[in-house]
Amino acid sequence: MLSEKIEKALNDQIRIEAESSQIYLAMACWAEAKGLEGVAGFMYDQSQEERDHMLKLVKFVNERGGHAQISALKAPDITFNSFKDMFEMLFKHEVFVSQSINELVHIALEERDYATHNFLQWYVSEQIEEEAMARSILDKINLIGDDKGGLYLFDRDIQQITVTTASAESPE
Ligand SMILES: [Fe+2]
Ligand SMILES: [Fe+2]
Fold it and tell me: Start and end of every Ferritin-like diiron domain (predicted)?
């Protein structure tokens, strides 16, 4: 059984993953409207991944005798005015999610809930990967600067970049 405290904390994380999915979906739309098809495709994939993170938590809460809560979501804040700003926002958001996962791990230990602690290790590794990917994309964007040709190539190659990064990091 889940304690009330851990169930609430897991439900908060369910909302955060759902909001992440919304944020990346909004970014996909922004990029698609700007004709950046590669970037849009990347953001659609990220949005789907966040939904999968949410579902994994939903199933876990329900399997452990809790009740997963599906709550109202905030509208994403689309205030960036360049694709560089957008990726900076993505990076900051992933750092925020990592902090939230760390807090959740801390609560699991406090509650002596070792099953939840074990389950959360997947999220700990996932966040390391996502932060690393966001950081390597930002490095590439900084190299491109204002070069239009560079942006064209970046948009063409972004999905390849992330596929390569992911396969280099996870051997499965
Ligand atoms: Fe996530
Ligand atoms: Fe993420």
Answer: 1-145
Query: Which residues fall inside 5 Å of ion ligand 2, going by CB?
Result: 130
| Cα of 148 from ligand 2 centre, angstroms | 28
pTM of this prediction exceeds 0.85: yes
pLDDT digits (tens, 9 = 90+) for 74-127: 899 888 888 899 999 999 999 999 999 999 999 999 999 999 999 999 999 999
Tell me how far CA of residue 89 lies from CA of 98, 145, 147, 169, in angstroms.
Answer: 14, 17, 21, 23
Tokens representing 89 are 């926002």
Q: Nearest-CA neighbor of 14 among 92, 66, 91, 70?
A: 70
Residue type, 111: E
Q: Give distance in angstroms: CA of 63 to centre of ligand 1.
A: 20
d(CA 154, CA 148): 10
List the shell of residues around ion ligand 1, using CB closer than 5 Å: 17, 50, 53
pLDDT over 60 (residue 166): no
Look at the block and give the residue holding tokens 């996932």. Answer: 126
The H-assigned helical ranges of 34-113 are 37-63, 83-110
